[in-house]
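User: Can you model how iron/sulfur cluster sits in this protein?
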Amino acid sequence: MVKLVLAEIFNSWQGEGGSLPGSTFGRRQIFVRFAGCDLRCKWCDSREYIDASGVSHWRYEVEPFTGKFEYRQNPANLEDVIKVILHLDTGDIHSISYTGGEPTLQIQALKTLMTKMKELGFDNFLETHGGLPEAIRKVANITDYASVDIKDESAKAAKNWRDLVLREIESIRILKKAGVEVYAKLVVTNETKLENVRWYAELLKGLAPLAIQPKEPIDISIARLMDIYRVAAEILGKKNVGLSFQVHKYLNVL
Ligand SMILES: C[S@@+](CC[C@H](N)C(=O)[O-])C[C@H]1O[C@@H](n2cnc3c(N)ncnc32)[C@H](O)[C@@H]1O
Ligand SMILES: Nc1nc2[nH]cc(C(=O)O)c2c(=O)[nH]1
Ligand code: SF4
Ligand SMILES: [Mg+2]
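Assistant: Here's the modeled complex, given as structure tokens:
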């Protein structure tokens, strides 16, 4: 039987991605948040879920936006997960979002769930750090949309940060080749270096658009954000860069 180590399932609006192609910002989604991550971004807002061994239960919304949850023990059964997703289907669901933690760490279970959701008529949106291109390859042909983070040096996500960025680019290449609508997301901080932004933009040129997302809570200055944007646009082209904010946090929804 297929098992998944999950954190939560809920129904909301996609709050990130801005207006770039590949973004599903503002669309209704059912979010499936996987537990466990192999990176340690210093500003991660899902920190309580990145050590999977500490996530004994997953929770699911009883009804959308009620704030009422029920809890089940991990690992979850695929059948229960599908039942919960279908119960949360409000009839206006654009796509199912797989996030985390890092969903691609449980690639076999993720692939089974994504395949099942396609069979049930849903589109798949993958939110990933992209650091595992070999895993990405296994789900590329059942993914409709993907947001792949490029981890900035200031995130201090991993020891070999440059290698991580190159793997993220490789994941984007694999997704694009499979026909996925993919964009890259860069979370920027007041420590983000312009020379690094130039490097990411060179790597992404001709490959995917870039959403620049200020780290929350926002402390980067507007002047700095403008500099980062301009440097990226000079290399990627004016139409291939945009801002993204975590709008769900302003709405106070999940
Ligand atoms: C929690 S991560 C899970 C998916 C995957 N592990 C990743 O990092 O892409 C979901 C998204 O939230 C973003 N994020 C997490 N914490 C953030 C923060 N404090 N400010 C802005 N974006 C944040 C991540 O960069 C990522 O794009
Ligand atoms: N509404 C909403 N939009 C989101 N976009 C990315 C999210 C994530 O944590 O992956 C997220 C999330 O947790 N909630
Ligand atoms: S990769 Fe994603 S889940 Fe993992 S620590 Fe970074 S932001 Fe959090
Ligand atoms: Mg989030």
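A couple of observations from the model: The chain has a mean pLDDT of 98. The chain has one domain: 3-251.
User: Helpful, thanks.
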